[in-house]
From TrEMBL:
InterPro entries, sorted: ABC-2_transporter, ABC2_TM, ABC2_TM_bact-type, ABC_2_transport
Entry's Gene Ontology cellular component terms: ATP-binding cassette (ABC) transporter complex
Keyword Amino-acid biosynthesis among UniProt keywords: no
Organism: Agromyces albus
Annotated membrane topology: Multi-pass membrane protein
Keywords carried by this UniProt record: Antibiotic resistance, Membrane, Transmembrane, Transmembrane helix
Compartments reported by the entry: Membrane
Record-level GO BP terms: response to antibiotic
Main localization (coarse): membrane
Source taxonomy: Bacteria, Bacillati, Actinomycetota, Actinomycetes, Micrococcales
UniProt GO molecular function: ABC-type transporter activity
Name of this protein: ABC transporter permease
Amino acid sequence: MSATTGTTGTAGTTRSNRPPSVAAIGIARIGYETKGYFRSPDAVFFTFLFPLIMLGIFTAAFSAAGEIQPGPDAEGLSIGAYYLPGMLAAGMLLSGVQNLAVDIATEKGDGTLKRLGGTPLSPVSYFLGKIGQVFVTGVLQAALLLLVAATVFGIALPTAPEAWLTFAWVFVLGVATSALLGIALSALPRSGKSATAVVIPIVLVLQFISGVYLQFSQLPEWMQNLASAFPLKWMAQGMRAAFLPDDFAVLEQHGTWDLGWVAFWLIAWLVVGLVVSRLTFRWIRRDA
């Protein structure tokens, strides 16, 4: 009887002393990273609230110009309704690319990553925590943006299940791609102090050429072609496919929503971000 108890006790001790898995540590870090994010006022303003503020500015400033129409006989949309999908796409880019690129570069510069490198924390768990934080904040940001758009600006949201299904897969792919590209881009700044100066101009230019702040159909063809090489254009196009009437597809570069190409380009950039992140990530800078 005592032998059985001892075996059970030994087994129980072994189980209780078993180190947590990589996934479990990564999931635990999501909460830590999310709390740290909301404790940083500049991050909350420039990545969480910025799309909401810009939607308010566009709606207030340009509503007097009238509705945007895809054709002479088609029903038009208000400025706010037309630009809402672009702001949702911009929110994904800001939460993933800008937030993570600046955050991780800063952690490299102030020695946080060097200290984490001396702990049992694996890069995979660290990545899971960062990506999970982007998903949490991205969902909250999109929900707040949609709530304010519907209640404050009077923008009608889709009612068809197919539209919300399109929104869901574009959102998941877009957030995952943006998060991985943010981790990859964090290797570019040489210090934490230079991170914002390096990252923000890249993000800002992409927003202007990808149909976020300017109507994409009115951009020069060469600029449309340039934007098509980057993921934000496809995120914005996928969001427009979910939120705008089908008549507005004629305003896209090829006169259609091209959802197959949206998925292709987002997956391609996701793979690029994953590979580059794995190849370039270091707990310390190479020149340290």
